[in-house]
Amino acid sequence: MEIEISQVGLASDHAGYHLKQMVKQYLDGRHLPYKDFGSDSDVSCDYADYAHPLADSVEKGECQVGIAICGSGEGMAITLNKHQGIRASLCWRPEIAEITRKHNKANILVLPSRFITEQDAKTMLDRFFDTDFEGGRHSRRIQKIPVR
After folding, report:
1. What is the largest CA-CA distance in the chain?
2. pTM more than 0.90
3. H/E stretch holding 99
4. Using CB atoms within 10 A of its CB, is residue 56 exposed (0-12), middle (13-18) or buried (19+)?
5. CB 69 within 8 A of CB 23
């Protein structure tokens, strides 16, 4: 990955809590430090309460990238993408996780815990962390994303 990662931000709601525990093990195995913004259990909660602090941290550069997880992934993705400096990508296949880094310079990977396996998640994490942004024509497109 072209950016130096000193910390990965994590966020989940109750539906993503168990998959987030696997993601922590994955990050430990890759020696990537992380900050967990919650949820801290599988008790029903609101995804936005955890998505906004994650987005703020990535925007400030405290975390260079993030992983967000909820049942469908949609709630997290919608909330995260309200922030101007965030390019959160909902992924359900490894190819999407790769191309969203390569072409969209995604800085938060969103996983739909109710629709993927742990192995799917691991493969998508590999692709997300091992793929660099291509730049070129994609840079021009990225510059057009923020609201004017």
Report:
1. 45
2. yes
3. helix 94-104
4. middle
5. yes
The pLDDT, as a whole number, for residue 140 is 93
Tokens of 76: 């997290």
Q: Could you tell me if residue 59 is left (phi over 0), alpha (psi between -120 and 50 degrees) or otherwise beta?
A: alpha
Catalytic residues: 70, 103
- 136, with CB counted inside 10 A (0-12, 13-18, 19+), is exposed
Q: Phi first, then psi: what are they for 11, rounded to 5°? A: -150, 145
Q: Which pLDDT tens digit goes with each residue over 59-108?
A: 999 999 999 999 999 999 999 999 999 999 999 999 999 999 999 999 99
Closest by CA to 75, choosing from 117, 99, 39, 41, is: 39
